[in-house]
User: Fold Thioredoxin family protein from Chryseobacterium endophyticum.
Amino acid sequence: MKTILSAILMVVFSFGFHAQNRLENAKKTAAENKELILLNFSGSDWCIPCIKLHKNIIETEDFKKLESDGVLVYINADFPRNKKNQLSADLKKENASLADQYNPKGIFPYTILMNADGKILKSWEGLPSENALAFTEEIKEIRENQKP
Assistant:
């Protein structure tokens, strides 16, 4: 009986330790690869500016190239309202924690560019006025101006 209980506890605790959140993973990756982190708070199924941001910037080739070229790590903290779009309990909890730390006013969309240490370099409240190319060029310029 003790063996079974010990095994169950080991499994439970291994999930707890393994479930490192996306921001911590992003910080580690960004530090290793000298990348920036872009954290976006969105309401993917109810916030019209959020939907436009994703369609006109995040889903474009210009933006995707930032990820593939090792310029940034992208995290989307989504807060959908429709039942069919609900996230897992763990992801909801993690997104709420990110919001508590970085978006306490509950602004949507809200986008933060930070370095690997979590220092905020720039933030955008609402839909950025730039198009995808200008948005990505600004991120590249901020990265180039970072100390090595």
